From TrEMBL:
GO CC, one annotated term: cytoplasm
Keywords of the record: Amino-acid biosynthesis, Aromatic amino acid biosynthesis, Lyase, Pyridoxal phosphate, Tryptophan biosynthesis
Taxonomy of the source species: Eukaryota, Viridiplantae, Streptophyta, Embryophyta, Tracheophyta
Pathway terms, separated by semicolons: Amino-acid biosynthesis; L-tryptophan biosynthesis; L-tryptophan from chorismate: step 5/5
Lyase is among the record's keywords: yes
EC numbers for this chain: 4.2.1.20
Record-given protein name: tryptophan synthase
Cofactor requirement: pyridoxal 5'-phosphate
UniProt family annotation: Belongs to the TrpB family.
HAMAP family membership: Trp_synth_beta (MF_00133)
Length: 470
């Protein structure tokens, strides 16, 4: 454990600057693909249904990111400049939740890896920074993207500002109207923010002609950003989750955490995280799954999703589009159908119809399990967390906290002192309206696990997924 002195042991004076522990930031990202017993099914061209070749993606993504997307290297070097920027908030703390343990009267030892200290307040800058860096290296002038509640848009806006890139963000209309602070953050970092659907793209105009007051969805916003990126050669698209290279960048979380747990002499029995597109979960767990495949440890790996958007637990494993308009490649993933529009729950980052293809594949291989929890239980858990550990969680990781509390209560009953590790992927300082609703008693669960309504809704949206010939 860290020695106590006048300065924390990781600080050293150099002029007036305190350096953080860049030597403790991993030098490489971990690519799990070559270690898996079976290869993930390839993405397919949306028109021909033929396996994608890297060139198909080049109008859309930076060259180096495409290479990472299809890479067979187990470890990929993190550029020095990216490590230097990571050091603004990395390494991130691994904290034992002793006060929460005490509240729950559990013999379990609960640890959380906290990503909320990043400039944008979540894990997302871990991928935004390298994505912006590679684009800048390749002479790209402008990056475009979509955002839901605004976490990813903020992260890319922040990263773009560091490298002088123009950044344009299509934000889901409902959040654009309800959450002005995230938009203002993006603008403070120099980005231009449009609401989605917008009149600026064909995809947006089409939706608006059908429903002028459409609240939008992530799938629609992706269609808009992709359309803009493909129209201009100086512009590329960036995605904040789902794709292999995004999951890859996030493994910096798990690699750091493996070392931190080792230093504490702990081995996790259960690892829990929330899944929207799967990136924070993959980021923490992939390095642990590697150790599990090597037979060194044997933790249960558990993903938690909202009952209102249950892609892993209620979706099907099939080829589907990543966006609503059907412009992206087809990816084999757990999906609720690309035109599934989830209830307006507060965990905006978990309202995506699909799951990362790589994580879906790993789920099929049996390396992990999944469950769905309704949002009121999540907010109740979040208050317990905030009132013991201090941090007010973003609505997304409240799902992980609720599952951790369930596990810790089981430990109380069985007397087992399991080590529970949780991905605590962001703070909720800009999501206090949802806490207000919970505290006022007006936050409701519209969807219950496996209810007839959700089954019917999923059945109806699954009927429009593309029929891919075998
Ligand atoms: C975006 C976001 C998520 C969901 O995305 P994943 O790719 O599943 O991690 C979860 N939590 C927070 C705080 C987010 O910003």
């Amino acid at each position: 454990m860290a020695r106590r002195g006048l300065l924390p042991s990781h600080c050293s004076w150099a002029g007036n600057k305190i350096h953080s522990r860049t030597d403790e930031i991993p030098r490489q990202w971990y690519n799990i693909v070559p270690d898996l017993p079976a290869r993930p099914p390839p993405p397919l061209h949306p028109k021909t249904f033929k396996p994608l070749v890297p060139g198909d993606l080049s109008p859309l993504l930076a060259r180096e990111l495409i290479m990472q997307e299809v890479s067979d290297e187990r470890f990929i070097d993190i550029p020095d400049e990216v490590i230097d920027i990571y050091s603004l908030w990395r390494p991130t703390p691994l904290i034992r939740a002793r006060r929460l343990e005490k509240l729950l009267d559990t013999p379990a030892r609960i640890y959380y890896k906290y990503e909320g200290n990043s400039p944008a307040g979540s894990h997302k800058p871990n991928s935004a920074v390298p994505q912006a860096w590679y684009n800048a290296q390749e002479g790209i002038r402008r990056v475009v993207t979509e955002t839901g509640a605004g976490q990813w848009g903020c992260s890319l806006a922040f990263a773009s500002s560091l490298f002088g890139l123009d950044c344009e963000v299509w934000q889901v209309r409902a959040s654009y109207d309800q959450k002005p602070y995230r938009k203002l953050m993006m603008e403070t970092w120099g980005a231009k923010v449009h609401h989605s659907p917008s009149i600026l793209t064909e995809a947006g105009r089409k939706i608006l002609s059908q429903d002028p007051s459409s609240p939008g969805s992530l799938g629609i916003a992706i269609s808009e950003a992709v359309e803009v990126a493909t129209a201009r050669s100086d512009t590329k698209y960036c995605l904040g989750s789902v794709l292999n290279h995004v999951l890859l960048h996030q493994t910096v979380i798990g690699e750091e955490c493996l070392k931190q747990l080792e230093e504490m002499g702990e081995t996790p029995d259960v690892i829990i995280g929330c899944t929207g597109g799967g990136s924070n979960f993959a980021g923490l767990t992939f390095p642990f799954i590697r150790e599990k495949m090597e037979g060194k440890i044997n933790p249960v790996i558990r993903a938690v999703e909202p009952t209102a958007c249950p892609s892993l637990t209620r979706g099907i494993y099939a080829y589907d589009f990543g966006d609503t308009a059907g412009m992206t490649p087809l990816m084999k993933m757990h999906t609720l159908g690309h035109d599934f529009i989830p209830d307006p729950i507060h965990a905006g980052g978990l309202r995506y119809h699909g799951m990362a293809p790589l994580l879906s594949h790993i789920y099929e291989l049996g390396f992990m399990e999944a469950l769905a929890i309704p949002q009121t239980e999540c907010f109740e858990a979040a208050l317990s967390f905030a009132r013991t550990q201090g941090v007010i969680p973003a609505p997304e990781p409240t799902h992980a906290i609720a599952a951790v509390i369930r596990e810790a209560k089981l430990c109380r009953e069985s007397g087992e002192s399991k080590v529970i590790l949780m991905a605590m992927c962001g703070h909720g300082h800009f999501d206090l309206t949802s806490y207000d609703k919970y505290l006022q008693g007006t936050l409701k669960d519209l969807t219950f696990d496996g209810s007839l309504e959700i089954q019917e809704k999923v059945r109806s949206s699954l009927s429009s997924i593309p029929q891919v010939p075998r």
